[in-house]
Amino acid sequence: MPAELIANVALQGILTGLVYGLMALGLSVIFGVVRVVNFAHGEMMTIASYAAIVAFGAWNIDPLVAMVPIAVILFALGYVMQAVLINPFVNRPEHSQFILLAAVAIIMVNALLMVFGPDARSVLVDYSLDSVEIGPLLVDKVRVITAVLALAIAAGLFAFFRLTRTGRAIRACADNYLGALVVGLNVRRLYALTFGIGSACVGAAGAMMVLLIDTTPSIGPAFTLQAFVIVIVGGLGSMPGALLGGILIGLSEAMSGLFFAPSAKSMFAVALLILVLLFRPQGLLGRKA
Amino acid sequence: MTKLTRRQFAAGTVAGAALLAGSGPFNIVRAQGAKLRIGSIHPRSGYQAQLGLACQRGIDIAPRVLKQLGMGADIEIMSADTESNVDVARSRAEKLINDGANVLIGAFDSGQSAAIAQVAEQKGVPYIINVAAAPQITEQGYKFVFRNFPTAPMLVGDGLNLMKGVFEKSGITPKTAVFMHVNDTFGQSMAGAIKAMAPRFNLPFQIVETIAYDPQAKDLSVEIAKAKATGAEMLMPVTRLNDAILMVREMVKQRWEPKIVMSPGAPGFYEGQFYKTLGKFSNGMITNVPWYNPRSQLTQKLLDEFTKTYKNEMFELNVGFSFEAVMVAADAFNRAKSTDGKALADAIRQTRIENHVMAGGTLQFNEKGQNVNIKSVTLQNLDQRPKVVLPLDIAEDNLLLPLPSWSKR
Prior knowledge:
The structure holds 2 protein chains of 2 kinds.
Chain A (H helix, E strand, L loop, with lengths): L2 H32 L6 H19 L3 H24 L7 H23 L14 E4 L2 E4 H23 L1 H11 L1 H6 L4 H23 L10 H15 L4 H21 L5 H15 L10
Antiparallel strand pairs in A: 1-2
Helix pairs in contact in A: 1-5, 1-8, 1-9, 1-10, 2-3, 2-4, 2-8, 2-9, 3-8, 5-6, 6-8, 9-10, 9-11, 10-11
Chain B lengths: L5 H18 L12 E7 L6 H20 L6 E7 L4 H13 L4 E4 L3 H14 L3 E3 L15 E3 L4 H19 L5 E7 L2 H17 L4 E8 L7 H9 L4 E5 L2 H13 L6 E4 L8 H7 L7 E5 L6 H13 L7 H20 L4 H9 L26 E7 L2 E6 L19
Parallel strand pairs in B: 1-2, 1-3, 3-4, 4-5, 6-7, 6-8, 8-9, 9-10
Antiparallel strand pairs in B: 10-11, 11-12
Helix pairs in contact in B: 2-10, 2-11, 3-4, 5-6, 8-9, 11-12
């Protein structure tokens, strides 16, 4: 098999993996702080994708530009969901949280079906089908742009949690819930803020994703599952872990498609998950509980 | 005023009914006093939704068109969604029958159709398959299952024969080909049929690589990179719709320009959504597939009504075969004069319809319940719509080969 083919496919896998990573980052941030697993994560991403499709169809706004207002809208949606719906469930058993968010996911899928119908939709911008030649490699331009943006957003998020007072306060809530209450932090507001930030990440990822794949209302659960696989591989609650998990899953899908059967791509991603669960249950960059 | 006795009323009613029945055109046989409940079962959500909805449009329009043509019956359409899932298809078929469906029509997908066939056979309710090619469905000895669609070997046989015609007409004969197929029941049936039948057809090209991919794939970049690396002169794809779009999009991105892209018989390239999504890049693709006969009067009538009803939708084979399925059910009902499952199944078995929509001979079923008279044509996407280019007697345009480069489409 030619080396340039392997390099080309590997690079495509890494670039796609970075966008997967951004999607999973939102899930990881929310779980790391609020300790609630967002089972409506993929569906929220699908809402963002449809928002990008509407913005492009109605006003011809490039999804990479629409990404900013869409992230803001998803932030608001996440904030309200946490403040109104999820906060009362924070201290309830996990199965109650699961049922709540699974119900939210079903409502979202069906609402999208009612509004947009089941047809697959996509956005075709001028550069959608362009490729960039890098030496012997031919790389999809959209993948390069979205991967760079995903990295930039992730870097911004790291900086926010490390360098700002609010970010440090959120981390304090995650590290020691009781301690955060004792020092007077408004934990419920910070939880809502965190859920909003996680949702904004998924909003940005959803807007970018319409440039890579076609969107249907029913695609959400597949994304939720994929985000789960990524954060478990990377380490639940670890932000660098989510990005690493995304890259590994993207790469494993690409390489297994090349060297084995393309139809077995998901199988290899799940096999990687099982290996991680067996030998490093906390995930590659996760901390032991 | 004279009082009407019960006997006089009964006699009058019978006489009136007889008069009404006798006044109808006697060349049309109608089932008296009953309504035919047709259970239309298709994937109307999930990844096959667009194709299931196309089938549904053919079903929905049929009662009205048949009535206008004097072939109508009192029909009620009951619709169910399989959600593109085999298990859901099975349970929805049971529910339709429990709710009173006399005939089932569906289901676009082979896996779902096979599941529905089992239910229909158990319950003794006729099931007319409008679109599904897996051969095993009509090889089970079922008595209530009928298929007005070619099996995978029929599709492949016609498809490979027409390929030779395309090579002859264009003067371009590829020496190598990549076979890419969706990895579901239909794709596997087609792959099996091609593997078994290709040696018999003495094809001029060698299949250098076979690539199977996930039917719900969100990205085909690896698959296309692999196919491109073989340097094959022809791409022979067996796709659904979404993957056909992904495939062409990725070919443009990776600048892969095989001399010919020709499907031996599969959906995807001729669907409305394919043209809407890919625009000029949809041009040039060839599909050998059963198609409507553009010269048939019934096709023209149906096409007119379809265009009036669904202004933004495309009339294609899913619509045509679905319409024909309702026509078969209505015709059988009119002859059987009953909604009893066995009577309807017997009547369907005796079907002989000469004037129909899809290309091919008389619409009739063999002892296995299979219509073996359906014929494929060669379609090529030209001016962003499918046009018949072979056989020449029903051709709408000339074959365009070799394909222009992506930048010149």
